[in-house]
Amino acid sequence: MNSKPKILLLHPPASKKRRYQLDGYCSQPQKGPFRWHPLDFCAFASKLSREADLEILDLGISSCHDFNARPLAYDFIIGLIGAYGWDDQLLFWKEILKKGVPVFLSGDIARYEPQFVFEHLPNLGGIIPELSLPPALSDLSDTNSSFIWRPGRKEYSLPSLKEPFSIGIQNFNLWKHSLYHLPFNTGHPFASIITQVGCPYHCDYCILSTYPSAKRDLNEVEEELESLKKQGAKHVYIRDATLNSSQKHLEAVCDLMKKTGLPWNAFVHTRGIGKFSKILKESGCIVLQLGIDSPDQETLRRKNKIPANAEEEIHLLQKEKISTAGHFIYRLEDNPLPPQSIARYADEIGLNWFTLTPFMIRPGMTSWDRKELSVISTMDSSIERLILKTSLWFYSRPSRVFRLIRIFFRHPIFSFLSLMNLLMKDKYLK
C-alpha cells in the first residue's frame, strides 16, 4: 500500500533585519508579537489534507532554520513570497529550489507579477494565484491545471471563481498554536477562517478590492466551525476583508456564529456598523477591527474611501460591550500626519486598541510600479521603530495602561527588548 505524498506548507524565515507576515492578501512587517495564520495555508491545507500528509512551518518570526544542513523529505513544497522583504525571500527560495523538491509559491508579488517571479526563479514549479481556489494533489503534477500558473506562458489570467465557493475543512491540529496570538483578550488557541473573498469597496490604496468578490458556502463554514470547536479552538478570527460587505452576509454570519457558540472578532467597514451592535453581541462578537486608515476625511474621499463617523460607531459598539480596534496607515495623507497625532486621534474617539502600519504601494494597486519593490524591500527600520513608539504612547494612557501590561506579560521578552529599543530612540518621536 502506497503512503500518502508529503507536502510542506512553508512561510519563509525572517531575516536579521525584519520579520514578515505574509499571505495572499498582503505582505507586511510583523506587528509586534501578534501573528495570525496565513490564509493561503488555511485554504491549501483544507483541500490537500484529504490526499496528502501535510506539515505547516511558519518561520516568519524566526531567522533560524536548518534547510541547508539536511535534505528535504517532501514530495512538494508550497510557500509564500511577498513584495515586503522580496530580496531576502528570493535568496531563500533559490536555496530551497537547489534541493530538487518541486516548489509552488503564493503571495501578492506572485499573483500580480508572475512573469517577474518566474524570471528570478526559473526552476519554480508554479504559482498558485487564488487562495479561494486551492489546488488538489493532482493539480501539482498536471501542467495543464487552471489552478496553477506554470512558467513559460505568454499570459496569465485568474481562474474563474463561482459563488458560493468551497475550500474544504481545515485541520486545526496542523498549526503550532503557541505561535499565533492577537493583542485583544481572546481565547487561545484561536483559528482563522474566511467566509468570503474580495471587497465591494475600491479604496485606491488597498489591494483587497482586486480580488474577485465571492461568498463561501456557509454550510461548509458551519461544518468547519463545528470541527474547529471539537479540535479545541477557543476563538475565531474571521479574516474577511470586510465582513459587512452586505447586510445580508453580516446577518447570516452572525446567525452562524450564534449557533456555533464560539467568541469571535472580524474586520469591518466602519460606516453603519454601529446599528448592528446588538446582533453582533448576541452572536458572540467581542472585538471588531475597524479600517479607519486616516483621521483626515478629505484624504479618504480623495482616495475613494467612504468616510464614516468613527466616534459615533465606536460609541454604539461599546455600549454593547464590543471592544474596538482601529487600524491606521502612516503616510497615507499627501502631507503626512505625525504618528503621534494619529494615535492621539485614536485615543480621542475612544478606541480600545490601536495599530499603525506604514503605507506601501503593493502589487495589484493601480499605482503599482515595479520600481517600488526596492523601496518596500529596504524599508527604513526607523519607520517601524517610530510606529512602535507611537503605539507605546497610545497604550500608556491611564485608561489603557492595563492593556499595555497585559501585552507585556503575554510576551515579556519581546516586549522588554522592544521597550528598551524604543526608549533609546527618542529622536524618532520628534
Give a short synopsis of this structure.
With 430 residues, the protein is an alpha/beta fold.
For this entry, give a set of tags.
Rossmann fold; 5-stranded parallel beta sheet; 430 residues; alpha/beta; TIM Barrel; disordered C terminus; globular; 15 helices; single chain
Task: Please give a structural write-up.
With 430 residues, the protein is α/β, with parallel strands linked by helices. It has 2 domains: 6-141, 3-Layer(aba) Sandwich (Rossmann fold), CATH 3.40.50; 172-429, Alpha-Beta Barrel (TIM Barrel), CATH 3.20.20. The protein contains 15 helices and 15 strands. The strands form 4 sheets. The chain has a 6-stranded parallel beta sheet. Strands 4-1-5-6-7 form a 5-stranded parallel beta sheet. Strands 2-3 form a two-stranded antiparallel sheet. The chain is globular and about 60 Å long. The protein starts with 5 loop residues before the first strand and ends in a 7-residue tail after the last helix. Residues 425-430 have low confidence and may be disordered.
Q: What does the overall shape look like?
A: globular
Work out the radius of gyration. 21 Å
At CATH level 3, the topology of the largest domain is: TIM Barrel
The CATH class label of the largest domain is Alpha Beta
Largest sheet strand order: 8-11-12-13-14-15
Q: Specify the helix fraction band.
A: 25-40%
Structural class: alpha/beta
How many H/I helical runs? 15
Give the CATH architecture of the largest domain: Alpha-Beta Barrel
